[in-house]
Amino acid sequence: MSDESSDAKAMSEWVTAVSQELGLGNTVDAASTVDMVLDLTSDVAHGVSRPAAPVTAFLIGVAAGRADDPAVAGRDYAAKISRLAEGWGADTERALPANDQSQRA
């Protein structure tokens, strides 16, 4: 068994245990959640800053938790924020006033 396989197994077990502990039951698919969050945090860490990655994941979780379907909202928000992070260093993105969210894609 490779290190990646043992890491993936440990991560899946951890996500399942945390989901149970938080009362989420089986509403979270461990494998797809891990992939989504790792992709998101990678985009944020490389496009914005490393410390922004876990904070961003937390904010998406809070926002998704307020939605009618948190799992779908979480995926949608992660994709939206990944796009934002990937373009964060672009001149056009940085030229927008920070408080003018209506101008952001």
Radius of gyration: 16 Å
Number of helices: 5
Structural class: mainly alpha
- State the end-to-end CA separation: 43 Å
Total discrete domains:
1
Low-confidence sequence ranges: none
Round the mean pLDDT to the nearest integer and report it.
85
Give the biggest sheet: none
Strand content: under 5%
Number of E-type strands: 0
Q: What proportion of the residues is helical, as a percent range?
A: 55-70%
Q: State the shape.
A: globular
Order of helices and strands: HHHHH
Oligomer: single chain
Structure description:
- The chain has 105 residues and is mainly α.
- It has one domain.
- Helices cover 69% and strands 0% of the residues.
- It has five helices and no strands.
- Helix 1 crosses helix 2.
- The N and C termini lie far apart (43 Å).
- The model has no long low-confidence stretch (mean pLDDT 85).
Summarize it.
With 105 residues, this protein is mostly helical.
Topology overview:
Elements: H1 3-21, H2 30-47, H3 52-65, H4 70-86, H5 91-94
Q: What keyword list fits this structure?
A:
5 helices, 105 residues, mainly alpha
